[in-house]
Design brief:
alpha/beta, binds pyridoxal-5'-phosphate, 16 helices, PyrdxlP-dep_Trfase_small, EC 2.6.1.1, 47% helix, L-aspartate:2-oxoglutarate aminotransferase activity, pyridoxal phosphate binding
């Protein structure tokens, strides 16, 4: 059994993924999202296709949206996932001072130039020619959810709008709505006939429990919404380089499924023909074997608990250092990221003086915090913020 995990392609042609393997992968993946006992899965109402990880699933959906709803736009949370692929922050202070002196202009200094940054969700929909808008999400004062502003935006958007929602472990803020708040969001979506598109890149990271992390989607299902979902196995199966993902769309009835799936496949074929084979076989082998699946579920839980433990230790360490600031948000937030509240200047200082690196918006990847470096991190944060 284990040799098939080490080389799941043994005995299978590497030329392409057979339709059977791909559909087994989709069959198992959608159970994670909608629930293994879910009526919509049993009734065959989910059109799913293998996608190029979470990014590819979002992109495929964006193309689909443009094809079939050409006048629509996408509402994205503010802030949302942004990827600083090539964030070149170059300190040009001395050079610019020199130029400024030469030109005799009235500048004191310019610290840094951001040569290139990409805001991923925004770029994905922009590249698919779908206009993007934002809705309120994060409140910097409370370092929590700006729920009333979010609901206002949902109410004020034109009927039938497309909204992207992070069902768990919101990137970059680590702030998720409560169950009660999800119910209210779902209710208001129903009133407005909005379409929820869930981007699930971190299932298991918020609570350690795959079903609990899919709770938001299940609430929408109970309210009879049609939904879309981009699923990534990059983080929760550690398969980043294999680009394993699934795009699913819940259809009104099983008759629609074939049409929607074939349209998604047609769009994918024009963009990249077919997705890679190796990772998808790993995932479908694990998900379709009860023993292997239970091992994976345990590992996800262990990993999520470790991150939670690091949050507590980081907060405790800062409090023990008598930091004058409130760090409760470190443990209130969930998932892989801590939206620390550090300013760009403080982030720069952490990099320059302590060689601690995070995105410029102050987002710390908690997966990189360990028992070995957490007190160094706390000391450095304390030093930069007091
Ligand atoms: N969606 C969100 C919210 C993410 O944070 C990420 C990755 O960072 C993705 C999608 C993309 O995931 P993948 O690496 O599977 O393409």
């Amino acid at each position: 059994m284990y040799s098939s995990l080490i080389d799941p392609l043994r005995g299978i042609g590497r030329e392409s993924v057979s339709a059977a393997v791909s559909s087994k992968f989709v069959e198992e993946s959608v159970k994670l999202v909608y629930g293994s006992d879910s009526v919509v899965v049993k009734d065959g109402r989910v059109a799913g296709v293998q996608a190029l990880s979470g990014t590819g699933a979002c992109r495929l959906f964006a193309e689909f949206q443009r094809h079939f709803h050409p006048d629509s736009c996408i509402y994205l949370p503010d802030p949302t996932w942004s990827k600083y692929d090539l964030l070149l922050i170059i300190s040009l202070q001395f050079l610019l001072k020199f130029i400024v002196q030469c030109l005799n202009l009235f500048f004191n200094y310019i610290d840094e130039i951001q040569l290139y940054s990409s805001r991923s969700h925004h770029n994905i929909w922009k590249d698919a020619q779908v206009p993007d808008r934002t809705f309120h999400y994060y409140d910097p004062d409370s370092k929590g959810l700006n729920f009333s502003a979010l609901i206002d935006d949902v109410k004020n958007a034109p009927d039938g709008s497309f909204f992207l929602l992070h069902p768990c472990a919101h990137n970059p803020t680590g702030v998720d709505p409560t169950e009660e708040q999800w119910r209210e969001i779902s209710y208001q979506f129903k009133v407005k006939n909005h379409f929820p598109f869930f981007d699930m890149a971190y299932q298991g990271f918020a609570s350690g429990d795959l079903d609990k992390d899919a709770r938001a989607i299940r609430i929408f299902l109970k309210d009879d919404h049609l939904v879309g979902c981009a699923q990534s196995f990059a983080k929760n199966m550690g398969l980043y380089g294999h680009r394993v993902g699934c795009l699913s769309i819940l259809c009104a009835d099983s008759n629609q499924v074939g049409s929607i799936r074939s349209q998604l496949q047609r769009i994918a074929r024009a963009m990249y023909s077919s997705p890679p084979v190796h990772g998808v076989l790993l995932v479908s082998t694990i998900l379709s074997d009860p023993y292997l699946k239970s091992l994976w579920i345990e590992e996800v839980k262990t990993m999520a608990n470790r991150i939670r433990g690091m949050r507590t230790t980081l907060q405790d360490s800062l409090e023990r250092l008598d930091s004058p600031l409130n760090w409760e948000h470190i443990t209130n937030q969930v998932g892989m990221f801590c939206f620390s509240g550090l300013t760009p200047d403080q982030v720069d200082r952490l990099a320059r003086e302590f060689h601690i690196y995070m995105t410029h918006d102050g987002r710390i990847s908690m997966a990189g915090v360990t028992t070995g470096n957490v007190s160094y991190l706390a000391n450095a944060i304390h030093e930069t913020t007091r």
